[in-house]
Amino acid sequence: MTNVKLFSGEVTNHLSVKIADFYGEPLSALEINRFSDGEMQTIIQETVRGAHVFFIQSTVAPGDNLLELLLLIDAAKRASAGYITAVIPYFGYARQDRKDKPRVPISAKLIAQLLEAAGVDRVVTMDLHADQIQGFFDIPVDHLKGEAIFIPHLTKNFDMDNVTFASPDVGGVKRARSLAQYFQRDLVICDKVRKIANKVDSMTVIGEVEGADVILVDDLVDTAGTLCKAAEALMEKGAKSVRALATHPVLSGPAYDRIENSLLSELIVTDTIPLKRESEKITVLSCAKLFAKAIRNTHEFKSISALFVEK
Predict the structure, then answer these.
(1) Among 76, 79, 199, 233, which residue is least crowded by beta carbons within 10 Å?
(2) Amino acid 89: pLDDT
(3) Highest mean pLDDT among 75-89, 163-177, 183-197
(4) Above 60 in pLDDT, residue 98?
(5) Which residues contact 82 (CB under 8 A, 6 or more apart)?
(6) Given CA atoms 288, 289, 293, 296 in this order, what sign does their dihedral have?
(7) Is residue 243 within 8 Å of 265, Cβ to Cβ?
(8) Are 178 and 201 in contact (CB under 8 A)?
(9) Which is the catalytic residue, given 5, 192, 229, 293?
């Protein structure tokens, strides 16, 4: 079997170190240089000829993180790597997965094309904003589920008998329903009206939450406007408490202040993206073990679906 080489991009080093530890192999050496004008140069510092190379990098903003991943893939391809897998814990630009207005790009599709053009053979990611983004690729995509991390945590730490799950918007119903079905609990929907990006104008709760401990479920939290507005609406409808699960803590702009001043009792996230600052209301669960298992199963040609939580 071919050798495995694990490399980490700069922004995901906090996670890559833990993945490598669970996998049982050290991270391989690379160097990222920048010229005075900001131009980037990536240098792989050990041989990858014939090896199965894994590059671990979330494509969170700024765009340099995506460019770094593309340059690393190109460098490995030109160094005769046998097989290249991009491990992208957070797949950026996934929210732009369709033309929802005239003269806009389908950015998620473009990112897929860029990765393939660079020379990647496979992609491993988690909780895409829309499942159909997998179809933007003409190479295998392993789509891991954050449920595998959240379900054990909820089972161990909470009494689920009084829990009601909620989707913060209509688009996230499938994700929330999956958890509701697993725990055999009720599901409610928060219907939001948004006139411009990152600003929620109004929120309506569809369903009964009187006296319930509500858990909001989303794939990512950006400015936290939707989650905080949903928590407020749920509490007004009589919820006993509201906490939230979100796989990717983008947390930009006023997000931290909003969360700390909100009616949310807790926000539970994973470490696909490093937190910019700590908060008493934010709990971080590591996805390192899940990705380490996915990397091992990929290399050993074993099932990835075996890592999912059985319904």
Answers:
(1) 199
(2) 98
(3) 75-89
(4) yes
(5) 2, 49, 50, 51, 52, 53
(6) positive
(7) yes
(8) no
(9) 192
pLDDT tens string 238-256:
999 999 999 999 999 999 9
- Four-CA torsion 278, 279, 280, 286, nearest 10 degrees: -60
Which tens digits make up the pLDDT trace of 272-302?
Answer: 999 999 999 999 999 999 999 999 999 999 9
Query: Is the model's pLDDT at 16 over the cut of 80?
Result: yes
pLDDT digits 0-9 by tens, 99-137: 988 999 999 999 999 999 999 999 999 999 999 999 999
CB 200 within 8 A of CB 225: yes
Cα angle at 76 between 68 and 59, to 5 degrees?
25
Whole-model pTM over 0.85: yes
Averaged pLDDT of the chain: 93
pLDDT at 85 exceeding the cut of 80: yes
Residue 237 annotated as catalytic = no
Measured distance CA(16)–CA(2) in Å, rounded: 21
Ordered by where they begin, the domains of the chain are 4-145+289-307 (3.40.50.2020), 147-286 (3.40.50.2020)
Cβ atoms of 49 and 1 within 8 Å: the answer is no
